[in-house]
Every structure is written in C-alpha cells, then in structure tokens.
User: Which sequence fits this backbone?
C-alpha cells in the first residue's frame, strides 16, 4: 500500500505547487526549483519546476499542496522557520525552514499525518535559483 501512496503523494505535491504558466517579465520572481521527497525509507529523484513567487515573499517558494497553510513564521537574518497545516482528505502537519542567499534558497519541509488510515512521515528538501521575472497569480 505504501509503495503506491508515496509516488502519488510526491507527484501531487510537486504538480500542485508548480505554476502552470507565467510570463517571462513582470514585477515578481521566477525561480527554478529542485525538490526531493523521501518517505518510509524511499527517496524520489529530484523533480525540477519553475515557480513564480511574489517579490519579497517566500510562501510561494515552499513546495506544498494548495490546501496547506503556513503559520508561525519566524525570520532571523536570512533563515525562516515555520509551521504547516494541511487539510483535506489526508490532513498533515509539520515544520519547515528556508535559508535565502543571493539569488538562491534552500530548505526542508517535514510533514506527518495519515494517508488512507496509515501513519506517514514525509520530508521534502528543496533548493531554488532565481532565473528571471514573472507575474505571480
């Protein structure tokens, strides 16, 4: 059961997170992002996507589904920590962190919850590189 849940969840997270379309100009930031998901001892190969995030806001750069919300955000210097709560069919919660550099960032998101009645723990490691401008939706 877990062997089919993991790929479906990982693909759903990355697909829901990747922006479907954006212009190559605009006031916002276009990021090229690689995310690696591991769960139950399995690790998916890095998935690459492009994300358009509102300039100066990091919420759009954290890979997660639409039904997830970031709370308890705390930024000290270039490092931000936060909590995540996901609702829906398989609710999950967890913590994350992100460290920004000059045109780059990296971070980790750890979630736990239940899927199809079974306990799951999932870790997503991600990194991004600023590649241009866009218009965020």
Assistant:
């Amino acid at each position: 059961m877990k062997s089919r849940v993991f790929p479906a969840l990982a693909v759903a997270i990355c697909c829901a997170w990747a922006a479907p379309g954006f212009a190559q100009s605009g006031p916002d930031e276009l990021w090229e992002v690689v995310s690696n998901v591991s769960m139950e001892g399995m690790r998916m190969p890095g998935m690459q996507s492009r994300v358009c995030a509102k300039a100066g806001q990091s919420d759009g750069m954290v890979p997660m589904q639409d039904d997830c919300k970031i709370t308890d955000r705390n930024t000290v210097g270039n490092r931000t920590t936060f909590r995540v709560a996901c609702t829906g069919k398989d609710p999950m919660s967890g913590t994350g962190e992100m460290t920004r550099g000059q045109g780059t960032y990296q971070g980790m998101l750890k979630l736990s919850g239940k899927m199809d009645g079974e306990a799951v723990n999932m870790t997503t490691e991600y990194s991004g590189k600023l590649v241009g401008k866009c218009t965020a939706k």
Q: What stands out?
A: The first strand starts at residue 28 and ends at 39. Confidence is low (pLDDT under 50) at residues 1-23.
